[in-house]
Automatic annotation (TrEMBL):
This is Putative TetR family transcriptional regulator. It holds the Pfam family TetR_C_46. Residues 20-80 form the HTH tetR-type domain. Residues 1-23 are annotated as: Disordered. InterPro entries: DesT_TetR_C, Homeodomain-like_sf, HTH-type_TetR-like_transc_reg, HTH_TetR, Tet_transcr_reg_TetR-rel_C_sf. PROSITE patterns: HTH_TETR_2. GO terms for molecular function: DNA-binding transcription factor activity; transcription cis-regulatory region binding. The keyword DNA-binding applies. Residues 43-62 bind DNA. Keywords: DNA-binding, Transcription, Transcription regulation. The keyword Transcription applies. Signal peptide: none annotated.
């Protein structure tokens, strides 16, 4: 136990964290800071100060600044995938797709910095960052492809290529929407939904 002082100046004991709890605390602080700035701009000094620990302790849990930034990005990607998980209990594939895309749009609007961070990983010289972005895209693609049988489509190379192309289109639309705000949420949602159905239809025609 560590002795500290409360606001009244009275000594009190602070509970010692387990290694897992301390690491998560430092990561949570980094995630909170990255809401307003790119993760690569979050410094170990700032995290240490916010946590009330030494800079050396932060490096005890994260081998390098790059390791810490990579952990932030992985956590951001995992959070995005969890928050945009397709809803259960919707039998109509069109309604399910609309709900899933709606959750995606809402996440991007609420967490623009985290979303941009995940996408920037694709352009990084660091293999670890590129891998996070690629894994995230692959999971989104797998979720979209899961709707294919309900739409009467056979999952094949054409469908997979079409979905990956739609994901690239979606990412570009979302970034433009965040920076320019020329479209309403409803227009963005309609554009992404109808384009997905159009891409699915095109894939079906190619394989006829």
């Amino acid at each position: 136990m560590t002795v500290t002082e409360n606001a009244a100046g009275t000594p009190e004991r602070r509970r010692r964290m387990s290694p897992e709890q301390r690491r998560q605390q430092l990561l949570d602080i980094g995630l909170a800071m990255s809401r307003d700035m790119p993760p690569e701009e979050v410094t170990m000094e700032a995290v240490a100060e916010a946590a009330g620990v030494s800079r050396g302790l932060v490096f005890h849990y994260f081998e390098s600044t790059h390791d810490f930034h990579l952990a932030i990005m992985r956590a951001q990607a995992a959070d995005m995938l969890e928050r945009t998980r397709p809803p259960e209990g919707i039998d109509d594939p069109n309604e399910a797709a609309l709900a899933a895309i709606g959750a995606y749009v809402d996440y991007v609007e609420e967490h623009p910095a985290a979303y941009a961070s995940v996408l920037r990983g694709a352009l990084s010289a660091e293999a670890g960052l590129r891998e996070v972005t690629e894994a995230t895209r692959n999971e989104v693609a797998a979720r979209v492809i899961s709707f294919a049988p309900a739409l009467g489509l056979t999952v094949n190379a054409t469908v997979r290529a079409a979905v990956m192309g739609w994901i690239a289109f979606t990412e570009d639309v979302m970034i433009r929407w965040l920076t320019e705000r020329e479209l309403s949420r409803e227009q963005v949602l309609g554009l992404l939904t109808t384009s997905l159905l159009a891409v699915a239809g095109a894939a079906a025609l190619v394989d006829v």
